[in-house]
Amino acid sequence: MTGDLSVFRDPRSVAVVGASPDPAKWGYWLARGALQGAGRRPVHLVNARGAVIEGTPSAPSLRDLPAAPDLVVLCTPAATVPGLVDEALDLGARGLLAITAGIDLAHGEPGLERRLAARVRAAGARLVGPNCLGVYDAATDLELAWGTFTPGHLAVVSQSGQLGLELAGLAAHAGLGVSRFVSIGNQVDVTAVEVLDDLVAHEATRAVVLYLEGFADGRALLGAMARLRAAGKPVVVLTVGASAASRAAARSHTGALTAATEVVAAACRAAGSVLVDTPAQAVELAHLLLGSPLPPGRRVAVVSDSGGQGALAADTLAREGLAVPRLSAATADALARSLPATAAVGNPVDLAGAGEQDLDSYGRVVETLLDSGEVDAVVLSGYFGCYGADTPQLVHRELEVVKTLADAARVHGRPVVVHSMSPDSEAVRTLRASAVPTLHTVDAAARSLALAARLAAGSGAPVPGAAPGAGTGAALPYLEARARLAAAGVAYPGAEPVRTADDVRTAAARLTAPYVLKAGWIEHRSDVGGVVAGLPDAEAAVGALRDLTARLGEGGYVLEEMDTRPGVVELIVGARRDPAFGPVVLVGLGGVQAEVYRDVQVALAPVTAGQARELLGRLRGAPLLTGWRGAPAVDLDAAAEVAAAVSRLVAEQADVAEAEVNPLRVGPTGAVAVDALLVSGAGR
């Protein structure tokens, strides 16, 4: 962290400038919230007309306050903000919370907000905002934001104030609550990285939800997220397509295939965090992160008091990439001994009415499954949670089962996730309070469990470093690009430069037929018919040169040996510099249809060969690599070595902006690259 942020979590005193008695205005909510903490710190209200707010009189200006404020909240017209900043700094304020938006526009001075931030830092103070919704800290009675907050253990850090409020509201509705809320706004001074670092030692926070629309210093952000993970506080990330412009500017298929969210998802995996799609998904996942153990694997047992609900739960889990394995005969027999003869004990487990006969059946079945060691989590789906709500006489017995479930999860270190038909009952509330995640839909339970498994499997290693690089420059000619990639460890067939018919004949004598002729100076030569393959001899190659020269003009052509090995699968391997997160590597099914299939995996670069092999294994088309319909398996180790080499090239050599091999032809006997694209850094 680059500075002390204590003034934004537990200030010695607070002054709200722009306090209002009108409940429809921001100034009212800020004043009202500040007064909630009046028992902990002095609260001063500033209103030019001297209005009384919630029974508390206000002063007409900061200079009229009885004491200098520690934290000044600015909720006034944009035109007044620069003067108020100077006034607050003159009084010795350590922190400014700027709610006001549009300061640059109001003054017709682009960059004014950042100049104000520099002025604040020069005075030894800090600024959150502007254009933010405020801050809240449950542990210190600090509430300086619109709305109301429910205390809990989930921290919310959001670039969008309103989306942050939605997250806080969803958390409250789910019975989770918020430990700290920070709307960071324009981040002209205090950044998301600093706010995250300030949460590492925050005792009340057990998990964090982060919403950002842009990633100015992605690697620094990942470092903060990794530090939170190391402190046992996983981070859930929400974002939008912030890097669309950079994708459009990319020169390679790799650039076109690395969507903004795919890069962010890869970055999150590197930091041991996880990317979700919606605020609801973030809060649903938070149920599993606030005290519940994470699943050590992807094997899930389903327990239900309804055959239909159990089957749907199993299907839903499978769609999320989780396994619902058949139980061993020993475990099935143990379950059968305590259930009716009509029960199903293979997985899903159908209690067949046992719950109605004896509520303890739920606990016994879950304990048996966790004790078996055959599953990494249990999903309990159906009516449980409704018994006490529908039949008050059963409340006590249902709560006893809740305790059994919570104890079983804690003892075995594996989560029990409940999908209950009751959205809110005493049992449901107690389940959540006992760190047993309880959700109202089975798809939410399955999705959250899959995300939790991804988090558990996430990297705990340091975020990979990379050399700084410049922007995109020119594409190198084919032979030069090939040479750079070959020097990095990528195998290529023999090739010779040619310009004339005599060059072709001389080159053909040194190479092995059949041949391929390429227009080496064109980046995407296949798109313009700049590649002729399957040339059986020198004279066929001479004819091809004449045809290409007639269509494309004279230039640096290349005659290359053609890879004719059987059983080959074509892959794409590429790496590029993302403007926020730095080097990223991509592997996928390749060839001219690479962008059609979009079957790719992305990771931060550099990667090891082992990590690259894991990426290849996650492709939808992975069965093509391991032997599909009797075909021989290809050399995955060779493909992984190429991916690692390309990732190192971009990560370690600052003059390379993009590098790509498409296709990389991988067969049972190795991997051979038959194309090369290398884009230099700007200024090369």
TrEMBL record:
Matching InterPro entries: Acyl-CoA_Synth/Transferase (IPR051538), ATP_grasp_subdomain_1 (IPR013815), CoA-bd (IPR003781), Ligase_CoA_dom (IPR043938), NAD(P)-bd_dom_sf (IPR036291), Succ_CoA_lig_flav_dom (IPR032875), Succinyl-CoA_synth-like (IPR016102)
CoA-binding domain residues: 8-103
A GO MF term: ATP binding
Database matches in SUPFAM superfamilies: Glutathione synthetase ATP-binding domain-like, NAD(P)-binding Rossmann-fold domains, Succinyl-CoA synthetase domains
Record's keyword terms, sorted: ATP-binding, Ligase, Nucleotide-binding
Gene3D superfamilies reported in the protein's UniProt record: ATP-grasp fold, A domain, ATP-grasp fold, B domain, NAD(P)-binding Rossmann-like Domain, Succinyl-CoA synthetase domains
Domain of life: Bacteria
Protein name in the entry: Acyl-CoA synthetase (NDP forming)
Organism ancestry: Bacteria, Bacillati, Actinomycetota, Actinomycetes, Geodermatophilales
